[in-house]
Amino acid sequence: MRAITESRCTSARRRAAGISKWLALAILVSMVRPATATDHVMAPGEPWPAATEVEPGDRILLAPGIHKNVGALSLSGAPGRPIRIGSVDPTQPSTLLGDAWSLDVAGASHLEFESLLVISGRSGAIRIRGTAATPGRNIALRNLFITPTPGVLVPVGLDADGVEDLRISNLRVALWQRAAIELRNASRIRMTGLTLQGDRRASAGIRLDSGVRDVRVERSALLIIGGSGVAAGLPTAPHPESTASTPAVEDLVVERCIFERVAIPVTVGSAERVLVDRCTIVEPTAAVFELRRPKAGWSAAGEVRIRHNLVAWKVNGLARLFIDDQPDAALDLGPNLWWAATMPTALQWLGGFPDGAAPQVVDIDPRLV
């Protein structure tokens, strides 16, 4: 009887030890498992969570309606775990509206904005800026629509200053004044699938001011702009007197874009290593390309390459092919296709091509290709 009892006790102790082992393992697993991200669902008028209440990987989801005066956002996610801000229902984008800027992002990193309607404030629609201590880093904008307050043009659609690694895709901007997109002190900028539709009051589509490096604009449409479609290296501030002459913009690629009814599709001032490639340019009016003289202290344009583009315009609808205010600029005009109903006679009326240009295609109607 005692032997049986001892055997049962031994078995019970073994079972208890096994249970304790698995319990300890379960506790250990629960301790090392990543925390679950939180969805913060915000109704219009409800205060947004503070930065300390939002963790990497969280989402801020906006219910349908108008969200007014959100204030400056200084949120930071983490690599691989961005903070996402968007609409609860992407098919019914929620609206942001502010007095000055409707979306103001300051010193943030690893943020993604998606499926939002942004109505411009007095200063503009979206501002993304770094601070003295923290530049903005790794920020994505997807499927946003910027529109003016009824009857008032958007001053600036998107203003980015002090930002690194900014990705903009499928952004639409309608009816602006100064620029749909303006960049300063920014690097590693990728823009694709843009639709920028202005009117004759629009000064520029994409404006690259100074301190801008490594920008790509691809597969985008710039429509009805009274000034330049892409204006690169046109600083608003004077060059720092304490430094040697430098370019305002470096390494810009504009590829596979459509420019339609844009007065001057591309203007280059103080910029180096600019490539305009495989774009379709329809009905420019003032000129097709412009080399504009930079302000004092800023270096001239260098390594500007224009190639493989299709350019078509109406008879008597184009003033000149080129505006060249930088005779010493390094311009490489590769092969392009040019067409108007009066070609090739129209070339002599429009000033012809720069010296040293590669052979151009001027006798093929692109509609027949």
Detail the topology: elements first, then pairings.
Blueprint: H1 2-32, E1 39-42, E2 59-62, E3 66-68, E4 72-73, E5 83-87, E6 94-97, E7 101-106, E8 109-119, E9 124-129, E10 136-147, E11 154-169, E12 172-174, E13 176-192, E14 195-197, E15 204-208, E16 212-218, E17 221-232, E18 249-255, E19 258-268, E20 271-277, E21 280-282, E22 289-291, E23 302-307, E24 310-312, E25 322-324, E26 331-333, E27 337-339, H2 346-349
Parallel strand pairs: 1-2, 2-5, 3-6, 4-7, 5-8, 6-8, 7-9, 8-10, 9-11, 10-11, 10-12, 11-13, 12-14, 13-15, 13-16, 14-17, 15-17, 16-18, 17-19, 18-20, 19-21, 19-22, 20-23, 21-24, 22-25, 23-26, 24-27
Description of the structure:
The structure is a single chain. The chain is mainly beta and 369 residues long. Helix content is 9%, strand content 46%. The chain contains two helices and 27 strands. The protein has helices at residues 2-32, 346-349, and strands at 39-42, 59-62, 66-68, 72-73, 83-87, 94-97, 101-106, 109-119, 124-129, 136-147, 154-169, 172-174, 176-192, 195-197, 204-208, 212-218, 221-232, 249-255, 258-268, 271-277, 280-282, 289-291, 302-307, 310-312, 322-324, 331-333, 337-339. A seven-stranded parallel beta barrel has the order 10-11-13-15-17-14-12. The radius of gyration is 28 Å and the shape is globular. The N and C termini lie far apart (103 Å). Residues 1-34 have low confidence and may be disordered.
